[in-house]
Design a protein that fits this description.
Strand 11 and strand 12 (128-138) form a beta hairpin. This protein has one domain: TolB, C-terminal domain (Neuraminidase). The termini are far apart. It contains one helix and 24 strands. The chain has one helix spanning 271-276; strands at residues 8-11, 18-24, 29-34, 39-43, 50-54, 59-64, 70-74, 77-81, 87-93, 101-108, 114-120, 128-138, 141-153, 156-161, 167-172, 177-182, 191-198, 205-211, 217-222, 226-230, 236-241, 247-253, 259-264, 283-287. Strands 1-24-23-22 form a four-stranded antiparallel β-sheet, with no helix packed on it. It has a four-stranded antiparallel β-sheet with strand order 2-3-4-5, with no helix packed on it. By secondary structure, the chain is an all-beta fold.
Amino acid sequence: MTASGPFTCALDVRASLGECPLWADDERVLYWVDINAPSLNRFDPDSGQNTVMPMPSSIGSFCFREGGGFVVALRDGIWLADPRGELERKAAAAPYDPATYRFNDGRCDRQGRFVVGSMNERRDADGAALYRLGASFAQTGPTFALTRLFGGMTISNGLGWSPDGATMYHADTPARTVRAYDYDAGDALPANGRVFAQWHGETERPDGGAVDSAGNYWIAFYRGGKVLQISPRGETIAEHAVPAMCPTMCAFGGADLRMLYVTTARQMREAEELARLPQSGGIFAMRVDVPGLPEPRFRG
């Protein structure tokens, strides 16, 4: 498979640390976050309008809720928010020291549970971990439980699932490695972790990913200025340059889910680089041949 066009800038927003793009198929808009200028954003590609919903602290990621609104992973814990981005209830406290750690990459699994990882902002120890937020229901309303899946990483990233939900992909960015895991539909932990893809170059740092309907895994390379498309067998199919050195995460959108969106960052970049790539921090888009999959929603 080959992509049908290069990346172009869909929103020249110049975010400090744009992340976590997710397509809302019912609204036909792209939601995304800026971690450093903490906000959840709603971008309408048809009108070009971007609506900012400020957050009280760093927002690493979010997901949609089945009943409307969002689950947002903030520095101090995981919260439920209404459709306007107003916080309603803390579902789980942060399972780490927020002076050193924060939540990072996260998304829903095919069973409607929010899986989210943490990161060590000092990058001096592999104390980050991956967690799963689930909901149970009673007459008094939902209750939430945060389960630790595994640890031993510095920056949790690259979450994605195969179309049948049986394989989970996960990256530890500084290790330059994406691993695949058997993923049980029940409450079992991810199992049989194995290296899916690995790199060794200084700028080959896998960040956020997405999986298309054919099972191909797309991964953005922070500081690498590119997005790779990888087959389910771990073979690189194509490499696509992005007009920014720090692409962060991919998402499929558009009416036919054949528009690949990529968020980027401009934090801590040299003036020369920003002069050469002035749209760094923007959201870029490219038409692809194989569509993505609808984004699962949190059941709770």
